[in-house]
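JOB MANIFEST
job_type = single_chain_structure
chain_count = 1
residues = 199
[input]
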Amino acid sequence: MATEPLDKVQRHAGIDRLFHWVTAATMVVLLATSLLPIIGIRFAWVDLHWMAGVLLTVAIVLHIVRATFWQQLMVIVPRPADLAEFSGARPGKYSLPQKLMHLAWALAVVAAAVTGVLLMIKAGTPFFVRNPYVFTLGTWGYLTLLHDLAALLSVFLIMVHVYFGLLPEKRAYLRSMAKGWMTRAELRAHHRDGERGPP
């Protein structure tokens, strides 16, 4: 049985990589089912949309539970000490831009999930009997606006995330999200030694 080279250091556990790619897939389905009909591509999108939304919501809840009880939750929270990176200090597991991206994703996805669940009442799904009168017309408008703003923020974040993920100097991060590991040299070049966070 071949052994893994000693210079490989685990950055992301398999369950965390699975969460990332399930989130990516559901986001693509959600954005496609919401935006394609707007540009004139007609298909039965409603069921696909809410099913992807439910899957994304379940994945996020599981991720929050895992991060809270089995990982170091504070490792992803931006702190004033992170500003030292601007003077050349190396970050811990996540840099300040990575933490801010995660925070923006959290805001966008939680806003989309909460408003999406409420909008399911208006649309009618196996989880909710259709009832467009549970909220006023104005409230439905605000919920739809917040949901759509969260979707637009998600489109922007996807573009930024993909752009930086494909940059040559960021390929180690892309590989770590695909395969789980970075080399020790990559880790030391970008992060404080020994502070890669929990596996």
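[summary]
Residues 195-199 have pLDDT under 50 and may be disordered.
The domain at 10-73+91-190 is CATH 1.20.950.20 (Fumarate Reductase Cytochrome B subunit).
exit_status = 0
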